[in-house]
Amino acid sequence: MSHQALRNMLQELNENKVYPSYVVFETMGKNQKLDVQKLNTHLLIVLEGSLHLENKNSQILQFFVPGNTIHQSPFVMNAQDSLKVMSDCESEIVLVHREFFLNFASNKIEYMEWLLEAVTENSSAFCFELMKFDLLPEKRIIYTLQTFCKKIHAREDSGYFKLPDFITKTMLSRYGGVSRKTLDKILVDLAEQRLLIKQDDTFFVKRHFDNEKSSVSATK
């Protein structure tokens, strides 16, 4: 479902809601923690920005970007003390009452198809996030960043994806499951291979593993 089609669906749901709480548009500030109790009864849909799921050790498990939905509650999974959802930047989200959505979607097959596709995408993405730990740390960092950039349709220049400004070294270490000391060594190796480069405070990750030369100059 396109971004505009998603907004049209949410507008229709909003216009037909029985109670005000059934469809709620919210803006989360940068580094704001989501009240996960809201997920007990509602689906969360990301419209703009980026959220991530992290565990009690602050390891980032999964990112949620525009078009993604969070359909399960940590309370339902008995993981409320182990998991939390945080915003990476100012983000626009929509909370849709789960039962209301399912009742409405029973007469709108395209809405039910969207939900099934969204849930499947989230599940497969989470499986990938778990499988990445079978990779060596260096490949793990590259593959996860490439996948993330493709997911958010990051801007590409000369064969490199530009990472969002909120992806810092600290976030990289938390997302890749490595220490900062190990990450610094990996970044040096990746820079020498021109797979991950840096200009000022911005990171660029190579779109593919190949021998193409890039016009983007690397700095350490």
Automatic annotation (TrEMBL):
This is Crp/Fnr family transcriptional regulator. It comes from Listeria fleischmannii. InterPro entries: cNMP-bd_dom_sf, RmlC-like_jellyroll, WH_DNA-bd_sf. Keywords: Activator.
